[in-house]
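Record 1 of the preview.
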Amino acid sequence: MEYINAFIVGGLICVIGQILMDKTKMTPARVLVLFVTLGAVLQGMGIYQKLVDIGGAGATVPLPGFGYALAKGAIKGVKESGLIGAFTGGITGTAGGITGAIVFGYLMSVLFNPRSKK
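->
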C-alpha cells in the first residue's frame, strides 16, 4: 500500500505542476521556485509532515520535498543551536541530497558526451 500511496501523492504533485505550466504563463523555473517555497512554508506550518506520513517518497522526492527538508533541518537546527541553527540546519538537512546531485551529475558528464541538437 505504501507504493500506491507514494505513486498517488507524487503523481498529484506532478499533475499540479503540469497544470500550472499548461494553464498559466508560469515557466518551469517559476513552478520550481513555487514548489520549493510551498514545501518549506507548509512544513513550517506543520502541514507537509502529514503529507509525508501518507505519501512517503511520493512527497519527499519531488520539489516540495526539498523545501520540506530545508525547513525541517532549519527547525531542528534552531532547537539545537538557537538562531545560528536557522542558517545551518537547512544545509545540514539537505547535504546528502545536494552532494548526491553533484557527484552523480559529475559522473554523468564524465561518462557521456553531451552534444547539442542540430
